[in-house]
Design brief:
Number of domains: 1
Largest sheet: none
Strand content: under 5%
Shape: globular
Helix content: 55-70%
Length: about 375
């Protein structure tokens, strides 16, 4: 398939068969609560599955416990090094470009607003940030890592949302296709890979073609582990950019859900940033990375920082020049980037490990309520020793 063409109709109807079948079995047998309780103790690859785990879940976890056999581990190591060298920039791109890009696709925004667990962007951002950090660890695919169990649970979370939306009559399948369908999962893969790289370029970050290719490749591996059929996924950056542009052009637009989710995201980061002086920087950065049209659709407020933020590439260029010319400067900036990423993630998670549970139901009003006051912030589950 040429990735600038209309996608095969089947991509809008196909979900993730192994995960969908597992979730269906858990609901039919009334085992969702039991599964969620037991899976809080299953968080690292290679550990024994909990006693009493439903058989359908046990079979699924065994079948999905390994990465695809086509993985090039040399490229994955290059991707890890690329992430370490650009961690704070990648975190910025994920927060202020990728997440709002999800919201600018109306049916995706509606999906994200549907589940209890996705009601507040803080939880979504915490889960995404933790997921990426797990992915870029040296032992991400080895025994003891947290990435593989996280990927397995995310697939089941997606399958549960698909099931709820269809069975509860909240989704127009004839018009929109299957919720979290293959095309949207590929689109999501592009948003978290090629659109992150595009955001880094807009910020003026120096990247080698090899580094960018390896980062994109890592997300192809991630996509495969999240149930995305890679035969329809672009193999390289140029084709990926064409696919991403075509997908966004086909579906993006204004929506109430998108605007509300973006508003919550802005509020979240205004709370994370100390004081109030730099609060306007948050919407200014989103507007700079997304462009005025998308920002207006998402009702991103304009601020006095809109012009000032355009100087970010020049500032980052100075920092990268220091990094390139001074080993001590490189160490200091890498350390600062690491600490910034850790601070951002710890602010979102409150220092706790995020758990990916199967939602037993969706929000009753199916959408994002704007009545929740800003002071009522999402609180992560209690810390556990597992």
């Amino acid at each position: 398939m040429t990735h600038t063409e209309e996608p095969p109709a089947g991509l809008r109807l196909a979900g993730d068969e192994p995960a969908d079948a597992t979730v269906a079995a858990l609901f039919e047998r009334g085992e969702v609560g039991k599964f969620n309780t037991l899976m809080r103790h299953f968080s690292t690859a290679g550990q024994d599955l909990p006693e009493g785990l439903p058989q359908a879940a046990r079979d699924y976890l065994r079948e999905t416990a390994a990465p695809p056999d086509w993985v090039d581990w040399g490229l994955m190591e290059k991707a890890r090094l690329f992430f370490l060298d650009n961690n704070v920039h990648i975190s910025t791109a994920l927060s202020f470009a990728s997440m709002p890009a999800c919201y600018v696709v109306p049916h995706v925004a509606r999906l994200l607003s549907a589940a209890h667990s996705l009601k507040y962007p803080s939880k979504r951002m915490a889960e995404t940030g933790q997921f990426v950090v797990h992915l870029m660890q040296p032992d991400a695919f080895e025994a003891g890592s947290r990435f593989i169990p996280a990927a397995q649970k995310v697939r089941l979370l997606h399958a549960a949302v698909r099931r709820h939306l269809v069975r509860d009559g909240h989704w127009d399948t004839a018009r929109l296709g299957t919720p979290i369908c293959q095309e949207d999962m590929i689109g999501g893969q592009m948003i978290f890979s090629i659109q992150v790289l595009d955001a880094l370029h807009r910020l003026g970050i120096h990247m080698t073609e090899e580094g960018a290719e390896s980062y994109y490749y890592a997300w192809r591996v991630v996509g495969a582990m999240l149930g995305v059929d890679q035969q329809y996924v672009p193999a390289g950056l140029e084709e990926a950019r064409r696919f991403s542009d075509a997908y966004m052009t086909r579906y993006m637009g204004p929506s109430q859900e998108g605007a509300l989710l973006t508003g919550r995201l802005i509020e979240l980061y205004e709370e994370v940033v100390p004081g109030t002086l730099f609060d306007p920087l948050v919407p200014a950065l989103i507007r700079y990375l997304l462009g005025d049209t998308c920002a207006d659709w998402l009702e991103v407020p304009r601020s006095r920082w809109d012009t000032a933020v355009q100087a970010a590439p020049a500032l980052l260029n100075v920092l990268e020049t220091i990094e390139d010319r001074s080993p001590l400067g490189a160490w200091a900036l890498d350390r600062l980037g690491h600490l910034t990423t850790v601070f951002e993630l710890s602010s979102l998670t409150r220092g706790r490990v995020m758990h990916y549970a199967i939602p037993e139901q969706l929000k009753k009003d199916y959408g994002v309520s704007s009545a929740v006051p800003r002071t009522r912030r999402w609180t992560p589950p209690a810390a556990r020793l597992d």
